[in-house]
Amino acid sequence: MRILVMGAGAVGSAIGGFLSQHHEVLLVGRGSHIDAIQTRGLRIEGILGNSFHKPQACHDFELESREFIKHPLDWVLITVKSTATEDAIRQLVKTLPDPSLPRYVHIQNGLGNFECIKDVISRQASGKRPIILSGMTITGYDVVEDGRVAITVYGGPGKIGSLADKGPSSESESAARELVDLLSETPLVFEYTETMLSFLWAKFLYNCCLNPLGALLKVAYGKLRLEPTLQIMRQILIEAFALARAENVSLFWSSPDEYFQHLLNTLIPATAEHEPSMLADLNRGRKTEIQALNGYLVQRSKMHGLDAPVNETLVRLIAASSVPGMNGARNES
Question: What kind and span of H or E run contains 318?
Answer without folding.
Answer: helix 309-321
